[in-house]
């Protein structure tokens, strides 16, 4: 049976089967994509397809009441829970990275303002002027010694 998204089916029995096969096809394709590129985004796509598969299975449960259907449903539930935890970790990790980046930039900007202030006032500071005197006096002493 060729699977198409927006097709009206001849009988009520065709729709649940075709819907589940379409969901399963999408899920297996995204699993293959994820296995070849294990990125956060690809795993998130798999997670979405797992959810769609599981919820479709809940809708059509009365059409396919048997142990195999239920075992696969439990597998989808377990995978949804596990990928959900991973997704939560990914989102938290990204938020922390952004938060720390902002915190680090804030601290950097504060330090930069302090440095700018110190640099601007350096040539007029007592420490600088005394250091300059010391150097100049050294030159005088050097020239006096010759």
The structural class is mainly alpha
- What is the total number of structural domains? 1
Shape: rod-shaped
Question: Fraction of residues in helices?
Answer: over 70%
Strand content: under 5%
Summarize the main sheet. none
Q: What is the CA-CA span between the terminal residues?
A: 106 Å
**Radius of gyration using CA atoms only:** 34 Å
Could you state the order of secondary-structure elements as H and E? HHHH
Number of helices: 4
Mean pLDDT figure: 80
In total, the number of strands is: 0
Q: Could you list the spans in which at least 5 consecutive residues all have pLDDT below 50?
A: none
Describe this structure in words.
It is rod-shaped, with a radius of gyration of 34 Å. The chain is mostly helical. The protein contains 4 helices and no strands. The protein is 82% helix and 0% strand.
Salient structural properties:
mainly alpha; about 80% helix; rod-shaped; single chain; about 150 residues
What is this structure's SSE topology?
Blueprint: H1 14-36, H2 40-59, H3 67-122, H4 126-145
Helix pairs in contact: 1-2, 2-3
Briefly summarize what is shown.
This protein is mostly helical and 146 residues long.
